[in-house]
Amino acid sequence: MNFELTHDQKVLQSAVRDFVENEIKPIAAKIDEEHRIPDELVAHISEMGFLGSYFPEEYGGAGLDMMSYAILVEEISKACASTGVLVSAHTSLCCNPIYAFGTEEQKKEWLPDLLAGKKIGCFLLTEPDAGSDAGGTTTTYRIEGDEVVINGAKNFITNGGYLGTGIVLASFDRSLKHKGITAFIVDLQSPGVIILKNENKMGIRGSYTTAFALDNVRVPLKNLLGQEGKGFNVAMDTLDGGRIGIASQALGIAEGAFERSVAYAKERKQFGQAISSFQAIQFKLADMYARIETSKLLIYKAAWLKDHKKKFSLESALCKLHASETASFVTKEAMQIHGGYGYIADYEIERMYRDAKITEIYEGTSEIQRIVIAKQLLS
Amino acid sequence: MKILVCIKQVPDMESPFRPNGSATWFDESDLAFRMNEYDEYAVEEAVRLKEQLGGEPEITVLSIGPDRVIEAIKKALAIGCDRAVHILEPEVASREPWQIASIIAAYARDKQFDLLFTGMQSQDRGSAQVGVLVAELLGIPSTTTLVGFAWADGVVTATRELEGGVKGKVRLRTPALVTCQLGLNSPRYPTLPNIMKARKKEITTLQAGELSSEKPLTGSAAFRHPEKKGSGVVLEGSVDELVEKVLVILKDKTAVLR
């Protein structure tokens, strides 16, 4: 057993860290305030290969592994959770299902533009009345010749506002519940794809969260991903991998808040001494660090399992559950350590506190993660 | 054209430094290491020259030290060096500049490098000796603290940073060695695909002891933190308030106004 990163992973970690420190951290507050990641930053992370990390070079990816991807999302999210989820949703929820379920033709058609960042990917599963209950999908499709016609509504779609490439889940017979669902690769520039709104949110404000109407959207039948009626499996498999990405995002948020808390506690003086000399603060830091380290171990283990082609569905739910609850816990304690200053936007902790909460909700709520975990423990 | 870039891996300067057991150097445990900043300029400049010449030059990157220096080497390979030499020396901190330069010169002597790039100095030891010593040992011209570099027809035109903001221009015929200073260029970030490609590049490992057995000419006698002085005070407020506060301090704590 070896808990050290490899030389290559350390090179990657340090390269990403330098990039994030110089190019993302200085504008993280602006991204939050303006509800937008600048196009130049999206272009820059594309050039860096951040949007194609673990896919093979033959499709335009960097050919790295899942561990490297987890490190990438973690490092980005230390400074900016909005950019972290852009990378995570794009990679795990759009590129991954195409890579895992696509035919060779589909991979060659869609992956190069996605992995180069020419298109930003998203995953259109959630609907106004079907969130955790994916089987309740009401978006429908019908086949007309060599085309598929999709109708329905999707919401809370991360990265939707880029109108890039989407994986759309739709049903051909709603009475069949999850057995009626099929996945399609959809060019979101297609006629009938209508943005109803980009949501105004509590946190990850730089990331698009989009509500769509799909009004007679015509898609070539060849864009059917996997098998007809097996879309639910595509969705569940996709979310398994996605959880490692979101757990890494949550870990990054927690680490970012922790680093600032340690620095602040050493610097801030009350009653004539640094507040880090008070046990009340020391206990907080110890608890924060304990949860961060356990989150990291769980995430790296899940990534390691995926890299070694072992079953990782239990571990990905476990790391997502623990890391997201850690992000909320750590940012809350970080704010308490920062006192009044933590509540002020200038101090970044305020943003991290708002950014953390969503990690307990999207890509499977903490309650769903507990169900996934318990089901596997009891099966 | 053959280029050699010599790099050193140094502790991250924001690390908490502690004296080692013999109090002659710093304790390396718990330190994070990275490529010496000035060596990053050296790597970048070499790669830019390679690009200028359509990819023809072959760049070898060399680093001396324990296994961990592979990380600095791999970064240089990911930025664009072609191949690497790792000179294994587990106790690199105990080797002083003369010994390091002798090892590098022994390696480079029969390799016919046209150009050698090094950093101006290391961020940890800061002797600024290794580059110029290598050039002397190889008997080739050198110039230091480059903030500008151009190459044409076998001639290097180097812009040097001198004291007080003065710049000097030096021309050298290759083979030559230059040492690089802040301001020469902005090193690129290694991209993810290039980090992956670097995995396939050749890294040759040599033993330091087989290249040179020169004895040290200098030694580190002691390593300690500077003595603690009273902490500084940051005054805040309007100019009038600041003046008042300074006056109070001068009256109370000094003899200036008495």
Count of the domains of chain A = 3
Largest sheet of chain A: 4 strands, mixed
**CATH homologous superfamily of the largest domain in chain A?**
Butyryl-CoA Dehydrogenase, subunit A, domain 3
Oligomer: heterodimer
Percentage of residues in strands of chain A: 15-25%
- Structural category of chain A is alpha+beta
Briefly, what CATH class of chain B? Alpha Beta
- Please count the helical segments of chain A: 11
Number of strands of chain A: 10
Terminal Cα span of chain B? 71 Å
Q: How confident overall, as mean pLDDT of chain A? A: 96
SS strand fraction of chain B: 25-35%
Question: What is the domain tally of chain B?
Answer: 1
Strand order of the largest sheet of chain A: 1-4-5-8
Descriptive notes:
The complex is a heterodimer of chains A (379) and B (258). Chain A has 379 residues and is an alpha+beta fold. Chain A has helices at residues 7-24, 28-34, 39-47, 66-79, 81-101, 104-115, 231-267, 279-307, 313-338, 349-357, 366-378; strands at 121-124, 140-144, 147-158, 165-171, 181-187, 193-198, 209-220, 224-225, 269-270, 273-274. In chain A, the strands form 3 sheets. In chain A, strands 1-4-5-8 form a 4-stranded mixed beta sheet. Chain A has a 4-stranded antiparallel beta sheet with strand order 2-3-7-6, covered by helices on one side. The longest helix of chain A has 37 residues, at 231-267. The relative contact order of chain A is 0.11. Chain B has one domain (2-211): Rossmann fold. Chain B is 28% helix and 26% strand. In chain B, helix 2 (70-79) packs across helix 5 (192-198) and helix 3 (97-108) packs across helix 4 (130-138). The A-B interface holds A 7-8, 10-12, 14-15, 18-19, 47-50, 52-53, 57, 61-64, 68, 72 and B 34, 70-71, 74-75, 78, 189-196, 198-199.
